[in-house]
Amino acid sequence: MPSQAMLNLFNSQIDMELFSSNQYRQMGAWCESKGLLGCARFLVQQAEEELDHMRKMIDFVHERGEMVVMGALDAPRHQFDDLVQVFRSGLDHEKKVTASIHAMAEQALSEKDFATFNFLQWFVAEQVEEEALFQAILDRMALIGSDDRGLFFIDQEIPTMRPARPAN
Fold first, then answer.
1. pLDDT tens across 83-136, in order?
2. Which of 74, 76, 85, 155 has the fewest C-beta atoms lying within 10 Å of its C-beta?
3. Is 26 flagged in the annotation as binding?
4. CATH for 4-159, options being 1.10.730.10, 1.20.1260.10, 1.10.580.10, 3.40.190.10
5. Do 43 and 78 meet the contact criterion of CB atoms below 8 Å apart?
6. In the chain, what is the greatest distance between 2 CA atoms, to the nearest angstrom?
7. Quick check: 161 and 133 in contact, CB under 8 A?
8. 94 labeled part of a ligand binding site
9. Measured between alpha carbons, how far is 19 from 96 in angstroms, rounded to an integer?
10. What's the burial of 40, exposed, middle or buried (CB within 10 Å: 0-12/13-18/19+)?
11. For the chain, which residues make up each domain, given as ranges?
12. b or e along 116-129 (b: 16 or more beta carbons within 10 Å of the residue's beta carbon)?
């Protein structure tokens, strides 16, 4: 059974995952309004992944015999200067999520709650991939450029991008 401190961290993280989903959906709406349909699809897919993360956490808390208590959410940002700002905001947000997951893992270890620590390892690895993916997108955008032709190519490529994995 997790401590109250650990439950509080789970509740906050569950809220953060739901906010992340809302933020990515809003970013996708911005992209769609600019005719960047490939980027919009990518961001909606990201939004769905965040909901999956939220559901995993809710299920884990319930499996441990506790109840999730969700809080109120802020409205996501909806105005961006350009596509680079959209993906820079995504990377910055993923870094905040990473810090939050790490704080949870640190708390679990300090409490010797090894079941929770083990559960969180998937999220630790996932965050490495998420940050790498957003950084790769920003790197690609820097290479291609953001003029009209660059945006066209970026919009075609982003939906196909996945985190690079080292060869085994």
1. 999 999 999 999 999 999 999 999 999 999 999 999 999 999 999 999 999 999
2. 74
3. no
4. 1.20.1260.10
5. no
6. 55
7. yes
8. yes
9. 12
10. buried
11. 4-159
12. bbebbeebeebbee
- Write down the residue that tokens 């933020």 correspond to: 23
Total Cβ atoms within 10 A of residue 36: 21
Q: Look up residue 103 and give its two tokens.
A: 């704080």
Q: Does the annotation place 111 within a ligand binding site?
A: no
Place of tokens 């079941």: 115
**Residue carrying the six token digits 């995952």:** 17
- Whole-angstrom Cα distance, residue 66 to residue 104? 17
Give backbone dihedrals phi and psi of 98, rounded to 5 degrees, phi first.
-60, -45
Nearest-5° angle of CA 33, CA 150, CA 148? Answer: 55
**Cβ contacts of 34 within 8 Å, gap of 6 or more:** 83
Task: Please report which helix (H) or strand (E) contains residue 24, including its range.
Answer: helix 4-33
User: What is the Rg, in whole angstroms, of the alpha carbon atoms belonging to the chain?
Assistant: 17
The residue ranking higher by pLDDT, 146 or 151, is 151
